[in-house]
Amino acid sequence: xxxxxxxxxxxxxxxxxxxxxxxxxxxxxxxxxxxxxxxxxxxxxxxxxxxxxxxxxxxxxxxxxxxxxxxxxxxxxxxxxxxxxxxxxxxxxxxxxxxxxxxxxxxxxxxxxxxxxxxxxxxxxxxxxxxxxxxxxxxxxxxxxxxxxxxxxxxxxxxxxxxxxxxxxxxxxxxxxxxxxxxxxxxxxxxxxxxxxxxxxxxxxxxxxxxxxxxxxxxxxxxxxxxxxxxxxxxxxxxxxxxxxxxxxxxxxxxxxxxxxxxxxxxxxxxxxxxxxxxxxxxxxxxxxxxxxxxxxxxxxxxxxxxxxxxxxxxxxx
Length: 318
Ligand SMILES: NC(=O)C1=CN([C@@H]2O[C@H](COP(=O)(O)OP(=O)(O)OC[C@H]3O[C@@H](n4cnc5c(N)ncnc54)[C@H](OP(=O)(O)O)[C@@H]3O)[C@@H](O)[C@H]2O)C=CC1
Ligand SMILES: C[C@H]1O[C@H](OP(=O)(O)OP(=O)(O)OC[C@H]2O[C@@H](n3cnc4c(=O)[nH]c(N)nc43)[C@H](O)[C@@H]2O)[C@@H](O)[C@@H](O)C1=O
Known about the structure:
GDP-L-fucose synthase activity; isomerase; oxidoreductase; binds NADPH dihydro-nicotinamide-adenine-dinucleotide phosphate; Epimerase_deHydtase
């Protein structure tokens, strides 16, 4: 993006700037000195509305786009609202990618997810595992939309020589995460549940599933840095895995969050809830070969996120 003397003044549209990922990307871009950020909340610009998106691009003419707006949720939300997860995501990404191309955007970064890979993909999962097997049923609707987004970027590159790239992040966490008790991802859900259990002197906390699935967790500040890095250094056809390389079982994660929050009761496992994919460790060696490596450890990331939760969620409610 800093490809000329006025690089820092280039107009960059960060779609979804109030979310977990979008807000981290805005912080990172500002830290690197980018000053001309174009931002719209969902109520200011509904990205599922094709004509509004088209008028927005025609009027604003951003030079770069980072697409971090999407319908996002954890295993329960994905399993319960499949129509929303496939329809909203297809609409947002189709509108944004097509209008960005039409109105002269130089480069676009599309964000997918590690759930695009087959349920029983080889581990760690290389980029080449895409479309080699059956998807995990709890999130196949979201995964199909994300795969369509990757393919759309590739199709516009082939037909129009347009610089659209895709990054596949692993399970993320950090400031501005969604702490909803049912619809969020595991890490924020457990942070809130342990916090509330501690505050209410509860003796136990219920955790979903068997505790055996493995997940690769990654602090969103690292992901944001990797996104800026890819915008500046990568212009390839294939999507790029963006992960930490560090995986833990859900049981280990629960113990870590319990320790950070300071809850002293016991864990009870609710095996009526789905485990989802047994393991999804991505092979992020392509990103490493490009010259980028993660910085935030899971312990530091958890402490920082709990502090953020206390200051921005708990204290604001009081
Ligand atoms: N969180 C995770 O663990 C992972 C996330 N990702 C990907 O990263 C990207 C961002 O996810 P994340 O930050 O977690 O999601 P969040 O739910 O935290 O944020 C989503 C953002 O999208 C915006 N948005 C949603 N629908 C619309 C719409 N119709 N029109 C305009 N804006 C809309 C929201 O706007 P508003 O705030 O105004 O409502 C919000 O800012 C997604 O593509 C997701 O698939 C990939 C892997 C893991
Ligand atoms: C990022 C990724 O996120 C989703 O996939 P997921 O990795 O399965 O997401 P999750 O964080 O919701 O669960 C991880 C594991 O944790 C267990 N678990 C325990 N207790 C709670 C709990 O309280 N809440 C949740 N949500 N899970 C719990 C849960 O049973 C599962 O075994 C995709 O749908 C899709 O959105 C996607 O791409």
